[in-house]
Amino acid sequence: MVSLNRTSADHPDFLFLVELLDKDLWNRYPDTQDFFEAFNVIKLDAQVVVAYVDDQPVGCGCIRAMPTQGTVEIKRMYVKDEARGKGIARKILGELEAWAVEEGKERAILETGVNQPEAVSLYRKLGYEQIERYEPYVDSEASICMGKAFARK
Fold first, then answer.
1. How far is CA 121 from the centre of its chain?
2. Which residue of 17, 65, 79, 113 has the fewest C-beta atoms within 10 A of its own C-beta?
């Protein structure tokens, strides 16, 4: 059974999973990851979700407020290899979206990459559409930016 924990960016399980994410990204983007490193630093005001299976951390993601009113950016989405294909990323993203809506946010944006087709597929299935690349990814051919408006209640 998957459990989700809302926490902060300094949580040890989040930091552990982000290390694994960074290794994965270096493997996928060895020639361009230097560029992205600076934009992957998460400040402590980020809102983090960590997923657990049998009390072991298996996935994470976070949101941070954007300068555009009512918008959050999804960052640091990751699920460990052995936990993939079980709907965990979908649950993490759903929890992040619910958290954003609770805070009155209207939209989420995110950046993923051309070497992450599984991520692009998941986001599309969950209603995200490709948008123009936003700063700092405007000139990055490896970047795919996506956005989704939240349903109003």
1. 14
2. 65
Residue 5: strand, helix, or coil: strand
Which uninterrupted H or E stretch holds 134? none
Q: What superfamily would CATH give domain 2-149? A: Gcn5-related N-acetyltransferase (GNAT) (3.40.630.30)
Give 52: exposed, middle or buried? Use CB within 10 Å, 0-12, 13-18, 19+.
middle
pTM reported for the whole predicted model: 0.92
Q: Where are the domains of the chain?
A: 2-149
What is the amino acid identity at position 44? L
Q: Could you read off the pLDDT of 101-152 as tens digits, one per residue?
A: 999 999 999 999 998 999 999 999 999 999 999 999 999 999 999 999 998 7
Q: What distance in Å separates the CA atoms of residue 103 and residue 105, rounded to the nearest whole number?
A: 6
